[in-house]
Design brief:
Number of strands: 14
Number of helices: 13
Strand content: 15-25%
CATH class of the largest domain: Alpha Beta
Radius of gyration: 20 Å
Helix content: 25-40%
Shape: globular
Number of domains: 2
Structural class: alpha/beta
Strand order of the largest sheet: 5-4-6-7-1-8-14-13-9-10
Length: 419
């Protein structure tokens, strides 16, 4: 497909369920004010765990969006996805009807899916026997149900799928939705990522891999990307959803346009199950491919929402990748990790971080990296430490990297009628 055949794609709606706010307005305000979403785990008794902290969604009631019977038959990750999708559709003022349903699709990524249901049902199996397992266990557990149930609850009958690329899943879902609209396969897509993996087994597993922070006595300062004293990531939960639309479709219905999506790059390190390739070559290529796809030069990039996990391996590797991809322009671009506030939503992170990147473009405001008190000498770029910044944002990137070596970069820019 050549560039002149591609449809233009714009962002017309946003939804967010996060550890720092359960609406778009609350989430964005939380980001700009540097609100901490990390605390002691309350979803289960974590007293015997090495890591006892997480970024939990607080004050969320699924019954604000779902009938009680329906909510009961969904794992938390699917509840988050449907709720954020309904928010985003309302924000876009996009009604799905019999006339357009086949042209509206859903692509929602998740890294793990319904792990809580699996853990609970295993306990029932072990204590009461196989005949007592729920008939809803499988449909509640499987990863594609976020996208499937979103379609059921919104009426979207167009393309529907689920990316499961670990911590890159949400970004892959947005990128794949972008491609479908570009190619004329849909007029609008509900897309993003969701995760609800703050569970006993998940926390134990990540802790066993020595990936999590154990700053249990100081949760507010545990997620500290690019800081010398970081000791691992903090798990978070929630969902971030975007409504992408073909430009002419959006204009014809008078939609408000937040930004235009113009690029998508993805690569694989093909190196290690959990560790990034030293020097970040794979991540750098994803950034370069996204810029090439967007027709944007490094000098045009205003802001990067970094993957920025607060792990010893990721932060210097991502810094090196940005330097490789942007060259001298890396020294001038504003970069921040919003995981410093929300924690790491795994497959949901790409969704809420794409929302943050779009809002930065729409509002000319850059969220900070909080808890950046003692910069790592290997992380020597402008990470917008501790305080948000008012700055013109013409082009924003959102990076996501996942176990398995998955690397994804999305590109958004200010919408202009002539492109």
């Amino acid at each position: 497909m050549t560039n002149f055949e591609r449809k233009r794609v714009v962002v017309t709606g946003l939804g967010a369920i996060t550890p720092i706010g359960n609406t778009l307005a609350e989430y964005w305000e939380g980001l700009l004010f540097g609100r901490n979403g990390i605390g002691l785990i309350s979803l289960f008794d974590a007293s015997n765990h090495a890591c006892r902290i997480a970024g939990e969604v607080k004050g969320y009631d699924p019954h604000d969006y779902l009938e009680r019977k329906e909510a009961k038959r969904m794992d938390r990750f699917a509840q988050f996805a449907v709720s954020a999708s309904k928010q985003a559709l309302a924000d876009a003022q996009l009604a799905i009807t019999d006339l357009n349903a086949e042209q509206v699709g859903a692509m929602i990524g998740t890294g793990i899916g319904g792990l809580k249901v699996l853990e609970d049902q295993e306990q029932i199996y072990l204590s009461k026997g196989p005949d007592r397992c729920s008939p809803f266990m499988i449909p509640m557990m499987i990863a594609n149900m976020a996208a499937g149930l979103t379609a059921i609850h919104t009426g979207a009958k167009g393309p529907n799928s689920c990316s499961v690329t670990a911590c890159a899943a949400g970004s892959n879902a947005v990128g794949d939705a972008f491609r479908l609209i570009q190619g004329g396969y849909a007029q609008a897509m509900i897309c993003g990522g969701t995760e609800a993996a703050v569970t006993p087994l998940s926390v134990a597993g990540f802790a066993a891999a020595r990936a999590l922070s154990t700053r249990n006595d100081d949760p507010a300062h545990a997620s500290r990307p690019f800081d010398r004293d970081r000791d691992g990531f903090v798990m978070g939960e929630g969902a971030g959803i975007l409504i992408l639309e073909e430009l002419e479709h959006a204009v014809s219905r008078g939609a408000r346009i937040y930004a235009e999506m113009i690029g998508y790059g993805m690569t694989c390190d093909a190196y290690h199950m959990t560790s990034p390739v030293p020097g970040g070559a794979g991540a750098a290529r994803a950034i370069q491919l996204a810029l090439k796809d967007a027709g944007v030069t490094p000098e045009q990039v205003s802001y990067i929402n970094a993957h920025g996990t607060s792990t010893p391996a990721n932060d210097p590797t991502e810094t090196a990748a940005i330097k490789t991809a942007l060259g001298e322009s890396a020294l001038k671009v504003a970069i921040s990790s919003t995981k410093s506030m929300t924690g790491h939503l795994l497959g949901g992170s790409g969704g809420i971080e794409a929302v943050a990147a779009v809002m930065a473009v729409a509002n000319d405001q850059i969220p900070p990296t909080i808890n950046l008190e003692n910069p790592d000498p290997a992380c020597d770029l402008d990470y917008v430490p501790n305080v948000s910044r008012a700055q013109k944002v013409e082009v924003a990137l959102s990076n996501s990297f996942g176990f398995g070596g998955h690397n994804v970069t999305l590109v958004f820019k200010k919408y202009a009628e002539k492109g």
